[in-house]
Specification:
The complex is a heterodimer of chains A (216) and B (424). Chain A is α/β, with parallel strands linked by helices and 216 residues long. Chain A is built from 10 helices and 6 strands. Chain B is an alpha+beta fold and 424 residues long. Helices cover 62% and strands 8% of the residues of chain B. The chains are: A alpha/beta (216), B alpha+beta (424).
Amino acid sequence: MKLAVAEDDVLMRQGIVSVLELGGHEVIWEVGDAHALARSLKHELPTMLLTDVRMPPNHGDDGLRTALALRSTHPETSILVLSQYAGSDYARKLLQGAGNAQGGTGYLLKEGVGRVSQFLATVDAVGRGEVVIDPRVIRHLTAQDNQPASRLTSREKEVLSLIAQGRTNAQIADEIYVSPATLERTISNIFLTLDLAETNGNRRVLAVLEYLKQAN
Amino acid sequence: MRHQARRQCWHYWNVETQILTPLKYSPWRLVTSGVLLKAIIFLVGTVALASVTFFLIILFPLLPFWAQILGQIDAWRSRPLLPEPLREERQFSWNWNLVWKNAFTSSAWRQSLVAVLEMVLGLLAFMGAMFTAAFAVVAYRLIVGEGIWLTATRWVFHSGDPLWQRILAAIVAIAVVLLFIYLLVALALIQVFLIRGLLSPQALEEQIEKLSEKNTEMVTAFEVERQRIERELHDGPQQHLANAAIQLGLARNQLGSTPADEQLELAQEQIECASQALRSALRGLRPRTLLEDGLEDSLKEMASAAPIPTHVTYELQERLDPAVEASLHFVVAEVLANTYRHSRASRVDIRVSQQGRNVVLRMSDDGVGGADPLLGTGLLGMENRAKMLGGSLVIDSPMGGPTVVELTFPVRTPRPTGVKRGRQ
């Protein structure tokens, strides 16, 4: 995959690039501020953009806004946002419209990059077009769950929450101690409950988005 | 044994109602509190000034100029009868250019209106005083008997009337005198009420504005400071922690499985924990939901985290001023904290509704009652917040329950300069 990295802290940027290269990815360019990011995007488009939210010169949410603008013009480009913020605001902004994009969407906390193999798995999942949200951010998104109106059972919610974290079926089955066949049944039940049985497109992504939407 | 329910009810009224409270006094208190004397002095002034107005009204064009002077005098002389000093709208000066200019402003016409009303009230006061005096004379004569007033009252009573008739008449006369005294006090207070209302119509609004601004400033300053701290921690310590985690991860990857990997794993975990701890510390400082999503959501969020089932009914269509929302948020938080601690309730209801021009926040529970605003500092804080909103707070919490807290205040539309939503 051709990747691009936007991050203002030099050490952090080098760290991210090193981890990505460990995973055999090609980093076509790396930038340290929002202006350079915009310029580079015009120059050469990556398969996936990894970006910080807050960046110079404004230190606002320039990184996130640039990423959202990129998704509207080039929905096939995947976006992985790396942030210090576990609060749900940025993640919610990022998730709006994530279901319609071909490219994947991810929101990870920066220290998560240190979990090298997990991080690389996440990069792959987002590259496949999935939606992956850091579990600590998901807790925030679901913390405001006032009315458990969702019709999912707690086991189904657990599975869905794991899907939202970018796990594969095999990993999930392993984690919750069920056979892959049982898990398949659970997942198809989830799709049925969320009326996604007849839907074309990435049902895993749509289910996750539906779940997060209900959680809010 | 039947438990005697002790009703505890506290009312905090706004200034307008406070002006008229002396009317509820007993005659004794009316005299001892000095209100009667102040009212009499005030009315003498009214009669005197009204006669000046009466002559000036013939020269109608002069009225706006006289009204300006009168406004100043009225503001000054109504002061003893006001629960708090009147805020003069404009200082009067003997600069005739200014007086000429002011004569054509709306405030001069309001002052003229006060002058004319004062003339009417002065006339009423004069007549009232005469009647009072007449009945006082009658009462005096009936009690004391024949005397110097004999001639003056001969047309009412004859010395040959039976005693019981004279006693009855004396009682009636005293009652009438008392009634007239109350009417005169009422006249004085109504005039003060009018002077305050017409010469300083924004007095209440400005008071709320001022205090609410203070409130907004507080919320804004707090939010700005919180954002600064959050940014500094995210850009400083947290960035270093994340860097450490990444470098450690890279190092572990290079080293492969060594005996030391367990310790490295532990170190990485600890770094992640530190980062997480920083985040939760910051989150505690942030009424984010209140600031961004508004009072309804912040109340519902509070209710969802409550240890007792708490139900929120929010009926307002539009958002309130951010400072007002913050006030209500903290009042609810305070009441809930008290409820959870002391009430032993099994259900709490919070209702925010609009009644005419007022917003009503009503919180009720099915607990044991007996909440005493004089015991806790929290409840006193609520009283202050109610005053800041220009509203009234009623805490009804008899022993044995239930407790109802009701906060009523006039609606204000949000000002354009609300809490700035800083970007992060």
